[in-house]
Amino acid sequence: MNWPNDADGDVMRRLQRGGFSFDRETEIDFNIDFDQWPPDSSLIGILQNELPSAKVSAHDDYLLVKVRARLTYAFVIKMQADLTQISAAFGGRCESWGCWT
User: What does DSSP assign to residue 4?
Assistant: First the structure.
């Protein structure tokens, strides 16, 4: 597979080298970071409403959104953009993700 030369593409290449199967669904973690912690508590409800199959939880200084899906570069980019758009009014942005092999 050929991914762009950016941080997300680098993760995809590392996963591929490690033998990750891109053909099956997996749990993908997306982190939403904030300018000020904690964000308004209504954001968790908004995220759960917008992404009903996702698991949303608060951690030390970020929100974790767990989504079960087939891992593709396009999916990661879209989810980060969607989560940033949803959380932007609360000072949030999603610029990191990960999954366990």
Answer: -
> For the structural domain made of 7-17+25-99, what CATH number should be given?
3.30.70.970
CB-based contact 88:32 (threshold 8 Å): no
Predicted local distance difference test score (pLDDT) of residue 100? 80
b/e per residue 76-95 (b: at least 16 CB within 10 A): beebbebbbebbeebebbbe
Residues 45-77: pLDDT tens digits?
Answer: 999 999 999 999 999 999 999 999 999 999 999
Give the C-alpha separation, 80 to 34, whole Å.
Answer: 14
